[in-house]
Amino acid sequence: MINPAYDAQIRTWIDAHRDEILEELMTLMRVPSIRSEPLPGAPFGAECRRALEASAQLFEKLGFAARTEYDRGYTLATYGESEKTIGLFGHADVVPVGDGWIYTEPFTPLVKNGYLIGRGGADDKAGVVIAAYVLAMFRDLGLPVKSRLLACAGSNEETGMNDIQAFVANEACPDIAIVPDGDFPCSLGEKGKLIMWAESDTPFTAIRSFGGGLSTNVVLGEVDVTIAPNAALEAQLREKIAGDSDYTLTAAEDGTLHLHVKGLSGHASWPVGTVNAGAKAAALLCECDALPESDRAILATVRDYVTDPFGTGSGIAHEDPRFGRLSAANGLMEVKDGKLRLSMDTRYGTTMPSEELKNKLRTVWGSRGWSLPSLESREAFHVDDNSPVPELIRTICADITGVDRPCFRMSGGTYSHYLPNGFSCGVSLTAKGATLGEAAGSDALTFPEGHGSVHQPDESLEIEGFFTALRAIAHTVLQCDELLQN
């Protein structure tokens, strides 16, 4: 159980620093830290470097010397001296913003009805701020921790995790690593991840462009298609999409057709409820016999293999006893040299060897006349079944919320994948075990479908849940310290 005396101190300290903590999080959220072209000293682009600078400035503002490894993509701060170390890891980079934000601009954070809205608030700049303020809290309160505390902010979690791999290769890894970048209570492991690029062997005949997407790990939410002038095709399309606001068809003066299709985006790691706009456009165009048959054949593969994000259409569906269903979600599409190219982000468990999966993918896509120029994988992992840390975090969460929630396994990926003895948890813990929004009370916002979650427009962080998460992670550090000293 949590120590009541320490809990009273922690809660009083958080209450005294609430405004400051929230403002520092908003300052970090104003940095548009999306990966871009590498520069000297900025391997993930200028804005990701700026996010590292802002994270280091936060560490230093709180009184901790920061060491920033710009070429490796992370910045560090420590408190205390000991042979044993407890690390707290967050990342300051974000996915692209997308369109359709309702409440605010993506990098203009807004506090509204109990939420903090803006790109990166929940994923995962809140994790960086939690790491920084845990160090400050333990120093200010003099809490009896004997381990050295380490705070780390990275800048390449969303697009490769080269930062944490560089950390593991060049730094002494902590004895226990806490990664606030998932959910509570604690993840017991993460699925494997395979990023595939597929390309049609034959070029389009009439379709000039077919593209869209934000990132490989964000389900394609909108797609634009440009097609050579074709009056018969225009007539067929107008008939089929009449009255459906998800489709927009326009014709240029020369007759060139432009089709815009909306789907429903979401995180590629668990695409339940998403609708892939590319597959939706492909299905529509396949119904139009005025489109050349060769183009429809290419699009039929997209329709058949991409529509279901769990691999049923392409024959790779798999159920893992630990991790559940395999998922396979498309994030990016483009036409290059007349040929359609697309990405697939596949998440799979420990009983699906990556080579077996790759061979299946080569076979099923090859049978349709597609090549796979790139197949990059990272195997699944699960934590030591005998580790006491997950049960420790679960008990802390139950003590704080009054709700006993089970630990779980993740479809997404975090730094825990690479950190020995790493455990991912959340950045928001609702005090009464409520679902998203319930803790904010009757004035809570109701986000439209496809909004409000990570990797979506109007990404949001429930503010009370964030401060409760800080409290829970402080207790986690206290009890992990006891484990390490015994």
Description:
The protein is an alpha+beta fold and 486 residues long. It has two domains: 4-190 and 381-485, 3-Layer(aba) Sandwich (Aminopeptidase); 193-378, Alpha-Beta Plaits (2-Layer Sandwich). The chain is 32% helix and 23% strand. It is built from ten helices and 22 strands. A six-stranded mixed β-sheet has the order 1-2-6-3-7-21, sandwiched between helices. α1 packs across α10. It starts with a helix and ends with a helix. The model is unreliable at 432-442 (pLDDT under 50).
**Beta-strand content:** 15-25%
CATH superfamily of the largest domain: Zn peptidases
State the share of residues found in helices, binned by percent.
25-40%
Number of domains: 2
> Uncertain regions: pLDDT < 50 for 5+ in a row?
432-442
Radius of gyration of CA atoms, rounded to a whole number: 24 Å
Distance between the termini: 17 Å
Major sheet summary line: 6 strands, mixed
Helix count equals 10
What is the strand arrangement across the widest sheet?
A: 1-2-6-3-7-21
**Structural class, judged by helices and strands?**
alpha+beta
For the secondary structure, the number of strands is: 22
> Tell me, what's the shape?
elongated
Please report the first level of CATH classification, the CATH class of the largest domain: Alpha Beta
CATH topology of the largest domain: Aminopeptidase
Under the CATH scheme, the architecture of the largest domain is 3-Layer(aba) Sandwich
Q: Compute the average pLDDT.
A: 95
